[in-house]
Structures are given as C-alpha cells and as structure tokens.
Amino acid sequence: MSSLSEKDRPIVQLLLSTGTCPRCVLRFCCVGSQMLYRHPHKDLMKDLQEFLKNSQEKEDTVCLDVADPPCKRIRLEHGEEGADDLNHNGAIPSADDGNSATESSAVKVCNVCLGILQEFCEPDFVKKVCQKVNSADYQFTSFVFSVSLPPQLSVRERAAWLGVKQQMRNLGLPLAKDDMVQLKEAYKWIIHPQLSEELGVPADGKSLFEVSVVFAHPETDEECHFLATACPDCFKPAKNKQSVFTRMAVIKALEKIKEEDFLKHFPCPPSSPKNLCDALEIQCNNGAVFVAGRYNKYSRNLPQTPWIIDGERKLESSVEELISEHLMAEFKADSFNFSSSGREDVDVRTLGNGRPFAIELVNPRRIRFTAEEMRRLQQAINDSSDKIQVRDLQLVTREAIGRMKEGEEEKTKTYSALIWTDKAIQREDIAFLDDIKELKLDQKTPLRVLHRRPLAVRCRLIHTMKSEYIDEHHFRLHLKTQAGTYIKEFVHGDFGRTKPNIGSLLNRTADILELDVESVDVDWPPTLAD
C-alpha cells in the first residue's frame, strides 16, 4: 500500500489487532488519498495484510545475519494461542498475528467508527438513502450531504488515539494528531461519488438541497457520561436539546480532561461493540425560496395577519393567508414566514401601487418557476378574492429582502383620511393646513397598541398636507408622512398622547372615519411588465 510507510506499521498492527476497521486505520495513519478510502472493505483489509507481511519479510531478511528465525508455523500457532491476551493488553502483535487479527476483525464492528465506515458505505445503504430522496419528490440540481454522528464516537476516537500515542512513544517515533483524517470527512469521501451517481447530480458544498443522515448507537450511549463528572462545566442544559451530551459538549470536555483522568474511566483501546450504528433518520431539506410582490387591500374588514386573541379567531381570513395558501400549494413547502414594509390596520385599505411584501417558503419541494408560471400564480391569487390584489410577483433572494426592511423608517408614505369635526367648519377653517410643512410630532405609544409595543415617545414628521372640504362636519386630508407615523392618533390626539394633532390645530374635537394608504414609497421589488 503505497500511501503507507514503515513508520505506519506499528499503528496498523496495533489498530487491526484491537478491532479497528481498515478505513479507520488509514485515518489514524493520516492517509489523505480519497480514492483509497473508496476501495471495497475486503480489498483494503487484504492490502493492509499484505503491507504488514511485506514489512515483516523485510525485517526477517535483516535478522538472517543475526540468527535463524523461528519456524513460521510455530510462530503462527503461538500467536493464535495467545492472541486474546495480547490483544486485550494492547500489545503489538507480530505480522502474522496481524494477519490473524485482520481476518477475524473483518466481521466485527469497528471499535472506533462503530460501523459507519463499514456497513454504511456499502451500495445497499446508498440506495436506501437515494430511495428516500426520490420518494420525497424534491426539485434539485445538486446536493450537500451532512451526517450527524453519535457523540461517543469522539470518546472512542480519543481512546484509540491515546493507545496509538503510547505505542509510538514506546518506540520513540513522532506522531502528529493534527493530520489525522476526520471521520466525517472520510465518510463523505466515500459516500459522495456513490450518491452523486445514483441521484444523477453533483455534490456541492454550497447547494441549498441537503441530504442528511442521523446515526445513533444505543449500546454505547452511556460512554460519554463520565465526562460530566470530570468536566461538569461543559454540560449544561440547553433549549431544544434532548440531552446535554451533544457532540460539541463532548469535544469540549475531551479538550479539558487530562490524559490520566481519561484513562482511569475509559478502556484504551476501546472494546469492540456487538452492534452496528443505527441510521435513525434520513432526511431531505431544500433551502428556503423567497417570493416578493406588492399587495392592494380593498376591504375594511381584513387584517394583514391572522387576528387571533386568546386562541379565538376574530376574522375568517387575512392578507397573509389569501396570498400564502396559493404559494404553499404551488411550491409544496412545509411552512412560510410573511413580512412586509409596514402594516395597515384591519379597517384601513391599501391602494395605489400597493404595499411591498415578501414570503419565505420553508423547505419547498418545487423551486423552479418560469416568469410565465409566476404570472399565472399571481392571476390565481387575484382571481380567488375581491379583497386583495397582488402585482409584481417574483422570485427574489434572501439578501434582496433587506432592501424592503431598510425603507421602513426612512421612506415616506401617503395617506388619505376622512375626518369628522364636532363643530361646523368652512373651507377657510382648514385651508391653513395646506401651508404646513415638515410638522414635527411627539407620539407616545398609542393606547391601542400599548399591549404589544413598548411605551416610548417617538418623533415623527408630517411632510405635507392637502385638505379637501366636503361639508360642515367632514373633510378629507391627504398627508405625506414619515414612515411609522400613527395617522389615526395624529387626527384625534389619543387623549393628548400625540402633540400636536388635527384637533388641537383646528381647536375642536376631530375624529377619523376612514383611512386609506395611497402609496408606500419603497422602490422594491422591481416593477414587472404586465
């Protein structure tokens, strides 16, 4: 085996004699050839046997000048008789003991990887994974493969490493753990080409489509527990974690624990388990897709998002639901997240070019849509309800959504308010409003939203106003304001919490009867041709 050198022989002998699989042996010997790991398990075992045999023959040749070597048959028999004792004590076997050990360990579960680099690299398991992927009916052009390993693997790897380290120290040979190939990396080297061939698409670390396998090994679950006593600071309960023995916590503890303390609690080398790992879960997940557009709301009895108080739904639908139900069905997503540039009250209409919105579709099965298909989807939304209309529906990136949020406080909004006054008014009574520019307001959090917004005084600007007289008690006011201005409170004053207000400016009681949003001046998403 050209990737191994004479200095690797004691490592190969020790690991094979203690029940380590050929691929883990290569990892501990710091072999970085991806192709070598892809060789069949039996071939690798045969190659390692040959390597040990050739190394021993060279050693025997050198010894001929000193003394005649003992009969090979006697050595073999002696090795077989004492193999159990030698292996149990972690002593280096002779080359022939190595051969005997490799033959018996071929059917054993690896004492380091617990079978992950054995059974779970075989074509049958790869086909099982691919069947799961294909049955999930996802659209994808590449994939990224992730694997979740039992945390006790790190403990076993440390134990095996300490055994190798001790042996090399006894022989006076140097050893560098930094170069050891990580289990996940070796597994992906083996599995990627097989998955790629079976699925017909390349593996790509930047792919949004993830295939993941979660491994567990119940037989050895408790092997991490001694670390909690030795390093209690590393194991703290966390939200959404079923156990404190996470892989990262175990690795952190292994970095802190002293070698002598570790060896007191864990066998070195680790013992061979009876059972293989279990592939608990094989899951698929597509990265989120983002759809943006603008919506008009024509109803004065429709909330933007579901209106539910104490578990009771107040109104049957919402803008969010009327749009998202069509997108969820077409993209075949698990769930969605709705966001928009501001929001209007349930009794406020949104007219003009509409309000920008974006919907994140989580784990969609379908991700590719042509411009024509998006137009048809937009039309389906518009045909389904007379309460809303959608325009400029398009696929966007996650980064692009930031442009919508940036404009929330910086941009302007235009409103039209129907106002009532208790005292009769004439045209000249309201004409002065047209001349007011950049009116500064101090708005204390409105009483109606105080249950969900922190108490604060917000400074806002009314850029311009234009009045439209209707009759002695009614007029319409067109306002251009800073985003985030509470218009209803600017009209009636909210018991003096907004100053100044239309009531105080007119020196009479004023109230708002109707409010429409006429424009949201955020230049996003891009306008599409009809």
From TrEMBL:
Record field: transmembrane: none
GO molecular function: metal ion binding; RNA binding; tRNA pseudouridine(55) synthase activity
Chief location category: cytoplasm
Catalytic reaction(s) noted: uridine(55) in tRNA = pseudouridine(55) in tRNA; uridine(54) in tRNA = pseudouridine(54) in tRNA
Root EC class: isomerase
Residues covered by the Pus10-like C-terminal domain: 290-521
EC numbers: 5.4.99.25
Protein name as annotated: tRNA pseudouridine synthase Pus10
Organism: Toxostoma redivivum
Gene that this sequence comes from: Pus10
